[in-house]
Predict the structure.
Amino acid sequence: MKHYNIPIFISHFGCPNACVFCNQKKINGCETDVTMKDLKKIIETYLETLPKNSKKEVAFFGGTFTGISFDLQRQYLETVHKYVKEGLVDGIRLSTRPDCINREIVEQLKRYGVTSVELGVQSLDEKVLKATARYYPVEIVTEACNLLKEYSIELGIQLMIGLPESTFESDFLTAKRALKMKPDIARIYPTLVIRGTKLEEMFKNGEYKALSIDEAIERTRKIYSLLESNGVNIVRVGLQPSEDLQEEGVILDGPFHPAFRELVETEIYYKFFCSIAKKEKRLDIKANERNISKLVGIKKANRMRLKKYFNIKIDNSIGKNEIVINGRIYSRLDILGKEINESDSN
Ligand code: SF4
């Protein structure tokens, strides 16, 4: 059954923090807060157009939902819960900070039908958290994740790569630590310098240097492979290229690409193909036509880089999650890399 989110952006509402990378209004493209009347109107407008036979969830994004007052959270949840009780909406999703979660809050979320909570974890390196103006210890994140798991609420995590004071190793270590919290879904965002943020100042006075696109792809590739090969559903990689974000002068620096995920996928396949070509000196690939463009890579990058060996044919008898190379079948796990899958002692 097809799934739809009914998005509700609660712009910077309730957030007293000032994380160096965040300009909430620019990221979510919304400048106003949401009243209960607005909330009902948004839901009803979506319900009129979405197919009846589909899974629909109301998604509170863009803010620190559980950072707003307890009573106001209840009002929002109560309003949506009416639609859940009537069977018009299947659940409620929201995003928040790890330090805005406690038992009382989670009990209330559960009571009103919240199905999924995404935590803006960003980093699990205390040096990075501090340099990013997120002043809480890493244990807070573990406690928040454990609570959500205890109440059987789907756990989502958002990770950022390339934050101030981060390194290749610290970003990967963050992903390994995050994996121990058993997330169900994840989003990975490379850090961008957005106009009007503290990071803009840091960038302008030389305190912060953004990752290049190649560095960002390489860091993300490892984290993405680690999470996916351990069963985490990666729902987004790279910021959504909203109109606001693409306005002239909004992104001042950083590895922004509207098809960032495809760039990462291209690199995953490239590394895999290289490992085979190195040993076997040929790449006779057969795959389902649905996978061909991914294998060839964005702008045919893999075909061009490996042109000496690259020979690809469509074979629709091959499953979506498999490819055949030089007569041998490989699964998605093979492609993601076993060495990553088996790693982790930290
Ligand atoms: S990232 Fe989240 S917690 Fe930080 S300032 Fe923005 S809305 Fe607030």
Observations:
- The radius of gyration is 21 Å.
- Residues 341-346 have pLDDT under 50 and may be disordered.
